[in-house]
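Bit of a strange request maybe. I'm writing a small parser for structure token strings and I need a real example to test against, not something I typed by hand. Could someone generate the tokens for this chain?
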Amino acid sequence: MAQNSNRKMTREEAGRLGGEATAKNHSREFYQEIGKKGGRATSRNHSREFYQEIGQKGGEATSRNHSREFYQEIGRKGGRK
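Reply from user aminoacidic:
Good idea to test on real output. This should exercise your parser:
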């Protein structure tokens, strides 16, 4: 979206433009590497219980948002591999 001189850019617009500019300047490998570094740092700073808790919360949220048919479908897809 072009910047209108009568209004400021929203955070959403600024974030999107910044993300697009960053993506143009970095490769997939760059993002993989920073993801690995972030994962290692997180694992150093959190316990097993932390991962169990966030896994449980994620599973509960997924079960609230998806039907039995969703789980049947992903089970079939997983069984094909």
